Structure formats: structure tokens, C-alpha cells
UniProtKB/TrEMBL annotation, chain A:
Homology family: Belongs to the ATPase B chain family.
Protein name, as recorded: ATP synthase subunit b
NCBIfam families, sorted: ATP_synt_b
Function: F(1)F(0) ATP synthase produces ATP from ADP in the presence of a proton or sodium gradient. F-type ATPases consist of two structural domains, F(1) containing the extramembraneous catalytic core and F(0) containing the membrane proton channel, linked together by a central stalk and a peripheral stalk. During catalysis, ATP synthesis in the catalytic domain of F(1) is coupled via a rotary mechanism of the central stalk subunits to proton translocation.
Known partners and oligomeric status: F-type ATPases have 2 components, F(1) - the catalytic core - and F(0) - the membrane proton channel. F(1) has five subunits: alpha(3), beta(3), gamma(1), delta(1), epsilon(1). F(0) has four main subunits: a(1), b(2) and c(10-14). The alpha and beta chains form an alternating ring which encloses part of the gamma chain. F(1) is attached to F(0) by a central stalk formed by the gamma and epsilon chains, while a peripheral stalk is formed by the delta and b chains.
Main subcellular location: membrane
Compartments, record wording: Cell membrane; Endomembrane system
Alphabetically ordered keywords of this record: ATP synthesis, Cell membrane, CF(0), Coiled coil, Hydrogen ion transport, Hydrolase, Ion transport, Membrane, Transmembrane, Transmembrane helix, Transport
InterPro entries: ATP_synth_B-like_membr_sf, ATP_synth_b/b'su_bac/chlpt, ATP_synth_F0_bsu_bac, ATP_synthase_B_chain
Molecular functions per Gene Ontology: hydrolase activity; proton-transporting ATP synthase activity, rotational mechanism; proton-transporting ATPase activity, rotational mechanism
Organism: Mucilaginibacter hurinus
Coiled-coil annotated residue ranges, if any: 37-89
Lipid bilayer topology: Single-pass membrane protein
UniProtKB/TrEMBL annotation, chain B:
Protein name: ATP synthase subunit a
Key word Ribosomal protein present: no
Pfam families for the chain: ATP-synt_A
Family the UniProt entry places it in: Belongs to the ATPase A chain family.
Gene Ontology cellular component list: plasma membrane; proton-transporting ATP synthase complex
GO terms assigned for molecular function: hydrolase activity; proton-transporting ATP synthase activity, rotational mechanism
Transmembrane segments: 147-165, 203-226, 232-253, 302-329, 336-358
Keyword field: ATP synthesis, Cell membrane, CF(0), Hydrogen ion transport, Hydrolase, Ion transport, Membrane, Signal, Transmembrane, Transmembrane helix, Transport
Membrane topology, as annotated: Multi-pass membrane protein
Protein role: Key component of the proton channel; it plays a direct role in the translocation of protons across the membrane.
PANTHER family: ATP SYNTHASE SUBUNIT A (PTHR11410)
Naturally occurring in which organism (per UniProt): Mucilaginibacter hurinus
Length: 164, 363
């Protein structure tokens, strides 16, 4: 059959032409195209990789910031709590000291008062004694200005003595 | 060996091949019965000159899908193509226009065209088959010219695309570049890489050239008028060369595992005398299937389209034209698909065979 019988001329020209086409396209088309595509794909892949890395870095920084913030917050809380404790302690100490001082002052005041009272009482006793003596002297003096009264008194006294 | 989708494609192709042969035998039976009649060629010439020739669709179709020494433009206008003959007496070149009207006396022999084949004519004006055997026809035929056109197109397209890559380095593709880049990536990522593996880069130029060469020639073949119309990829000589290239590339690159599988397969030694012929036939049958598949698919498409057009002339009625045209449009759209599909299958199977040959086995 004519249709399935290859002709030598076409076989020859196809071989020559195809090999030349292969050589020329291989050198001037496929090599630069494949290199460019590979290059671009690598660039894109690298860019994606870098973007991913940047995202990770960003996430890392964010989480780091958050951790720092958390830490700072915790520290602040600790400091505040400590301050509160210190304040309470100081206040408590002050209260204690004040109480003690007050008690001491009260005690000393009481002692002073007692002392003063004792002194005053002694003084009063003395004065009362002196006054009593004075009064008694004056009364006696007045009573014994009159000889009759003296005699009467003596008589009364004697009378009483007799009675008892 | 074959994964299933490829196997399906094979079955599909085999069915198509059978369909083509059925179609061919149906068409060629009457044609060949006529050819057998002695002196038919001359009779046809005589009657053709005189009265209106009866329309023979099989003859017309076979003439259209076969190669030709001139390139038909319109009506009776042809572009004559150079004839190059390598005879036992020397090389002879002349324009095919000399053969348009009868015999041409060259330097060494007298030549005539018979069914678009150059034959030697003896002194009595009869075709001398014995002398014809000494003449090898290396003419620039319609197919060769069409192939060169496709090669020029491919070079212009891809060298401009490659310069676009240089100019727009690292940037997104643009224009023709952006149309072809997905195709190039398809050949790389869906044909070469899965079938060949990590050593794919070495075979990329071959696979890309094969793919685009077959594709563009399939498409040029679909154009019904000049400069299309040549049935290049539907010519057995072209598919033979392509398949031979696959055969050579596969076997030159075959590693020790490939040859061990063929020469020392894992079967009992006494089966070797049976295995060797089978394996050696296997080496050739794979590219042979490639050759037949491409040839048959493209030729079948051309035959169907031409048959549908012929219907108009067979019925000698314009009424049938809309029906024919509708079917032809349908077929042409289908052939557009077949054009890329066959290029894909040819390249895919080439990649698969290369992959099988260079595959590293670790036993």
C-alpha cells in the first residue's frame, strides 16, 4: 500500500530537518527558556520561603513581646503586692510603736500623776495640819482670852472626868 | 509497565487504527482494482484530457493525503517545487513544473509523474520500473516544504519567546510567552517529570521539540488551503523518523537494568530462547506503535474530512453541502483536540519509554 510505504526522500528530509530543529531550539530556545523558568521558580520559592520565615519571625517577635509584656505585668503585680505588704507592715509597725509609745506615755503620766497626787496629798496634809494647828491655836487663844471660860472648861472637863 | 490511563489511551488508539484500516480498505479497494488494470495511468490521462472525468472520492482523498511534487494554490495553479534525484549516474535537479505536461528529459534519464511519483520513462515512452529503482527521490515535496514552514514558525516563535525570557527576566510572562509557558510547564511537569524522574532535564529539549513539532504540523495540516493542507504528521515517513528517534534515544540511554531486563530477565534460564525474541520485538514494537498511532490518527482525520467534503461531489448537489459542512466543522473541532492529544500522547509515551530505560532498580 502506497500510503504506508515511507518514502526515502521524506525520511531523509525529516531526519535532517528535525535534528537541525532540535539542535537550534535546544540551544537558542529550550535552554534559555528552561533556565529562566527554573530561575524564576527558584526565586519565587525563595521569596515564599523568606516570606514564611519573616512571618515566623514576626510571630516569634509577637509572642516574645507578649511574653515580655506578661512578664512585665507579673513583675508589676509582684512589686505592687510587695509594696502593699511593705505598706501594711510599715503601717502596722507604726501602729504598734504608737500604741507602745502611747501606753508608755500613759504609764509615765499615771506615775507622774500618782507622784504629784502623793506630793499634793502630803502638802495638803501638811497644810491641813498647819491650818488645823493654827485654827486650834486661834480657837484656843480666843477661848482662853477669857479666864472664866478657861476655868469653866476646866471645870467641865473635870466634871466629865468625874462622871466617867 | 503501563499505568492504566496510558493503557486506555493505547486501547483507544488501537481502535482508531482499526477504524482507519477499515476506512482505508473500503476506500482503496476500488481504487486499487482500477490501478491493477494495465495501462490505466495513460488511459486516465487520455480520457481526462478529453471528456469530463467521473468523480472518484477515493482517488481524490488519497491524492490529498499523499505527498506531492507541487503545492496546490487554487484551481489549476500550483507552486512548482524543486525535484532532487539521486540516480546511479549522478544527482539531478530540476523544477517540478517541467513534469506538469508529460515527460521531461533530464541529464541522465527521461522522467514522468505517475500518481505524483517520479518514474523513469524509456525511449518508447513507457514507464521503466527497473530504471526507476535506481533513482532515489530526495525532492523538496509539499510535505518537506510544509515541514520547513513549520520549522521556521517554531524557530520564530520559540526564539522570540526565549528572548522574552531574557528581556523580562524574573518577571511574569507576557503575550505569546504567557500562552506557551503553561504548555512548556505541562510538558515538564506532566510529561517529563512523572515519567522520567529526576533526570528529566536532559530530555526536555527532545520532548519539547517533539511535542511542538507534532502539534504545529498537526495544526498546519488542518488548514485546508495554502500554506496548510500538507498531511505531514499523517505521513508514515515522518512518523517513522519520529518513532526512530524515540527508539534510538530510549536504547542509547538504556541503563544496565534495562538491558538486564531484556537479556537476562528473572525467569528460568530455559525460557530465554523464547524471551529473547519477545523482548527484542518489544524494543521495536513500542516505537512502532507510536509511528502507527500518529500516522493513523492524523490520516484518519484527514480522510474523514475529505470524505465528508467528497459527499457534495458524489451527490452532485448543493443540498448536501450544509450537512457536509456541519460535519466537517464538527470534525475540524475534534481534530483540533486530536492535534494536541496526539502530540501529547507521542511525547508522553516517549517520556515513558525513556523513563523505563533509565529507571534505577534497587533489588
Amino acid at each position: 500500500m502506497e500510503l504506508v510505504t515511507p518514502e526515502i526522500g521524506l525520511v531523509f528530509w525529516t531526519t535532517v530537518s528535525f535534528l537541525i530543529l532540535l539542535a537550534i531550539l535546544g540551544k537558542f530556545a529550550w535552554k534559555p527558556i528552561m533556565t529562566a523558568i527554573d530561575e524564576r521558580e527558584r526565586t519565587i520559592e525563595e521569596a515564599l520561603f523568606k516570606a514564611e520565615a519573616a512571618k515566623e519571625e514576626m510571630a516569634r517577635l509577637t509572642s516574645e513581646n507578649e511574653a515580655l509584656l506578661k512578664q512585665a505585668r507579673a513583675e508589676r503585680d509582684v512589686i505592687l503586692a510587695e509594696a502593699r505588704k511593705v505598706k501594711e507592715q510599715i503601717v502596722g509597725d507604726a501602729k504598734d510603736a504608737a500604741q507602745k509609745e502611747g501606753a508608755r506615755m500613759i504609764e509615765s503620766a499615771r506615775l507622774e500623776i500618782n507622784n504629784m497626787k502623793a506630793i499634793a496629798l502630803a502638802d495638803v496634809k501638811n497644810q491641813v495640819a498647819t491650818l488645823s494647828l493654827d485654827i486650834a491655836e486661834k480657837v484656843l487663844r480666843k477661848q482662853f482670852e477669857d479666864q472664866g471660860k478657861q476655868d469653866q472648861l476646866v471645870a467641865d472637863l473635870l466634871k466629865e472626868v468625874k462622871l466617867s | 509497565m503501563y499505568n492504566s490511563p496510558i493503557f486506555k489511551i493505547k486501547i483507544f488508539s488501537i481502535l482508531r487504527v482499526f477504524a482507519v484500516f477499515l476506512a482505508l480498505s473500503a476506500f482503496s479497494a476500488p481504487a486499487f482494482s482500477q490501478h491493477d488494470a494495465p495501462g490505466h495511468g495513460q488511459e486516465a490521462h487520455e480520457t481526462g484530457a478529453g471528456e469530463e472525468k467521473k468523480f472518484e472520492p477515493s482517488e481524490v482523498i488519497l491524492e490529498h493525503i499523499a505527498d506531492s511534487h507541487s503545492w496546490h494554490l487554487w484551481g489549476h495553479t500550483h507552486i512548482p517545487l524543486p525535484v532532487i534525484l539521486y540516480t546511479d549516474k549522478g544527482i539531478e535537479t530540476f523544477s517540478s513544473s517541467h513534469l506538469d505536461h508529460g515527460h521531461y528529459a533530464g541529464k541522465y534519464y527521461t522522467y514522468a509523474l505517475e500518481h505524483n511519483k517520479i518514474k523513469v520513462v524509456n525511449a518508447e515512452g513507457q514507464i521503466d520500473e527497473a530504471a526507476t529503482k535506481n533513482v532515489w527521490d530526495f525532492s523538496i515535496t509539499r510535505n518537506v516544504a510544509s515541514m520547513w514552514l513549520s520549522i521556521i514558525l517554531l524557530m520564530v516563535i520559540f526564539i522570540s519567546v526565549s528572548s522574552a525570557y531574557k528581556k523580562r527576566e524574573g518577571k511574569a510572562p507576557k503575550g505569546l510567552q504567557s500562552f506557551l509557558e503553561p504548555v512548556i510547564l505541562f510538558v515538564r511537569d506532566d510529561i517529563a517529570k512523572p515519567n522520567i524522574g529526576h533526570k528529566y532535564a536532559r530530555f526536555m529539549p527532545l520532548l519539547l521539540t517533539m511535542f511542538f513539532f507534532i502539534w504545529i504540523n498537526n495544526l498546519i495540516g488542518l488548514v485546508p488551503f495554502f500554506p496548510g493542507g500538507a498531511n505531514l504528521t499523517g505521513n508514515i515517513a515522518v512518523t517513522l523518523v519520529m518513532a526512530a528517534i524515540t527508539l534510538i534515544v530510549v536504547n542509547v540511554n538504556g541503563n544496565k537494568y534495562y538491558w538486564k531486563h531484556i537479556l537476562l530477565p528473572d525467569v528460568p534460564k530455559w525460557i530465554y530462547p523464547i524471551m529473547w525474541p519477545v523482548e527484542i520485538v518489544g524494543i521495536f514494537s513500542k516505537p512502532f506503535a507510536l509511528m502507527i498511532r500518529l500516522f493513523a490518527n492524523i490520516t484518519a482525520g484527514h480522510i474523514i474530512v475529505l470524505s465528508l467534503i467528497s459527499l457534495i461531489f458524489v451527490f452532485k448537489s448543493f443540498a448536501i453541502a450544509p450537512v457536509s459542512v456541519a460535519f466537517v466543522v464538527f470534525m475540524d473541532v475534534l481534530e483540533l483536540l486530536v492535534a494536541v492529544l496526539q502530540a501529547f500522547i507521542f511525547t508522553l509515551l516517549t517520556a515513558l519509554f525513556i523513563g523505563n530505560a533509565i529507571e534505577e532498580h534497587h533489588h
